[in-house]
Amino acid sequence: MNRNNPFEIHGINHLSHSSINTWLQDPAKFIADKLFNIRDIGSASMHRGTAVEFGLSKRYEDNAWEIDNTIVEQKFEQLCQDDLIDVTDEKRIKEKSQLKEYTNKLNQEFKYDNLVEYQKRIEISFEDIPVPFIGFVDFVFEEAFIDLKTTARMPSKETESNKRQMALYSMAYPDLKANLVYVSPKAYSKFLISEKDIEYYQKQIKSVAFGLMKFLAISNDKEELASIIHPNYDSWTWSETLKEKSKSIKQWSY
User: Residue 15 carries which DSSP code?
Assistant: First the structure.
């Protein structure tokens, strides 16, 4: 087993809640991303979330009563254009048509005062983990920090991956409430992450990071690591683009 810093050897200079969640849910996708720099292009649904969050931040910045839908649409179109998503793409058209429904829900339900930070970069360290965790907190208010999730379907409860994210961010804001907000075109839900859950998932994140470090320490050769874990191309997380790109990995080019 390699006894040096395996993260450094494999070119990983930081972790994040999303990288830990990817490692847990789809290790092969983590390998493709972090070891071979193979990533998917952005999606219309991802850009919908970014655009809606941006519009909400501008509402606070401008002290406006409502979100400016023109700003949201412009941001959405820019992001889609940057990722070369065609204007005739069905998902792009559908997501654009529903942007106003998301903003209407937020105008009705999102009631927080005194915005302190938007997209605040944080850096967290765990003892004995040789790389930091980096994250970006959507909204920091005087009483709570918020992560906003736009979703086509409203979940009945918080997901495990989202609770890991909030537990990590809580390390930067231990004195603030951790609020997770979901908004869909038809519904709005807010969840307060409990202190018990925060403690549990912080311990889990550290444990998972240790496990990942042990895996990376098996070999300095990324191809050898790729030979241990293979992708499940039946999973919806593997787009056709990502499948094609991953064939450049020798061990997966069957």
Answer: B
pTM: 0.90
Give the residue from 250, 218, 186, 207 showing the smallest Cα distance to 23. 207
Q: Is 170 helix (H, G, I), strand (E, B) or coil?
A: helix
Element (H, E) at 8: helix 6-9
Q: Which of 161, 213, 186 is nearest to 24 (CA)?
A: 161
Of the ranges 2-11, 39-48, 216-225, which one carries the lowest mean pLDDT score? 2-11
Of all residues in the chain, the percent with pLDDT exceeding 70 is: 99
Cβ-based neighbours of 82, under 8 Å, separated by 6 or more: 42
Shortest CA distance to 91 belongs to which of 30, 32, 152?
152
State the amino acid at position 251 in one-letter form. Answer: Q
Query: Tokens at residue 104, please?
Result: 């209407």
Report CA dihedral (141, 147, 150, 151) to the nearest 10 degrees.
-140
- CA pair distance 118, 103, nearest whole angstrom: 17
